[in-house]
Specification:
Layout: H1 6-19, H2 32-39, H3 43-55, E1 59-62, E2 66-69, H4 76-82, H5 89-110, H6 113-128, H7 133-150, H8 154-177, H9 181-196, H10 200-229
Antiparallel strand pairs: 1-2
Helix pairs in contact: 1-3, 2-3, 4-8, 5-7, 5-8, 5-9, 5-10, 6-7, 6-9, 7-8, 8-10, 9-10
Length: about 230
């Protein structure tokens, strides 16, 4: 098994600090420089960790303000995330199949030039990271989050971020066992093409097909879970 990237390890440490109350909802986190000094890592690793925490919905990052801890008490998305457990994976994908195709359809109708450029950059980076499972996973999370952002609906964005958080460990297990990153990348390319073409119906259908393929990998990973822990 490939060791975790530094950014992923820092994200886990920061996630634990947030959940244990070291940083409270609404707190502005220390600067990248201060966090890099505190954890003894590069600013690039801190930046990667912050982006992952943002994709999980634990922090919000605004230009000129920095990273701020999200408020889980008033967050429907985080309430949903805390209910996710391994036995619920099939139910979770059923929920995703109801939700995410519609989000993709909205993105096809509402995505700005900036949204489209960001999505294209993520897919391009995924091509370069095809052999780096942890970076590929981070970019996968970013891709789905950007589609939700492009939908123009902040509530949908919040829920998708929570789903990303709940599925993160399952995705890691899938990548180690049965996950096919090339198939996932091809799915993302088809979804992106539909969104760029502003074809809402095709965006919904390509997202639905993609999620069905991913569900097979995720459920296969769960079947292997007991062997990982032995």
């Amino acid at each position: 098994m490939r060791p975790l990237r530094v950014g992923d390890l820092i994200a886990r440490e920061m996630e634990a600090l947030i959940k244990n109350g070291f940083w409270s909802p609404g707190d502005i986190l220390p600067s990248e420089r201060e966090l890099a000094q505190r954890f003894g890592v590069s600013r690039g690793s801190v930046r990667e960790a912050l982006r992952l925490l943002e994709a999980m919905g634990l922090v919000t990052i605004r230009q000129g303000e920095g990273a701020r801890v999200s408020d889980p008490a008033s967050s429907m998305g985080h309430l949903l995330a805390r209910r996710i457990s391994s036995p619920d994976i099939s139910h979770l994908f059923e929920f995703r199949l109801i939700l995410e195709p519609e989000v993709a359809g909205l993105a096809a109708q509402r995505a700005t030039t900036e949204h489209l450029q960001a999505l294209k950059e993520v897919v391009l980076e995924q091509k370069r990271a095809i052999d780096d499972s942890h970076k590929f996973l981070f970019l996968d999370i970013q891709f789905h989050r950007l589609i939700a952002e492009a939908s123009g609906n902040p509530i949908l964005l919040e829920i998708i971020s929570a789903l990303n958080a709940g599925l993160r460990e399952t995705r890691l297990r899938a990548m180690r066992r049965v996950y096919d990153p090339l198939a996932s990348l091809m799915g993302h390319e088809r979804i992106l093409e539909a969104i760029v073409s502003k074809d809402a119906a095709r965006a919904r259908e390509t997202m639905r097909e993609h999620l069905k393929r991913v569900e097979v990998s995720a459920l296969g990973a769960e079947a292997f879970k007991g062997g990982d822990e032995g």
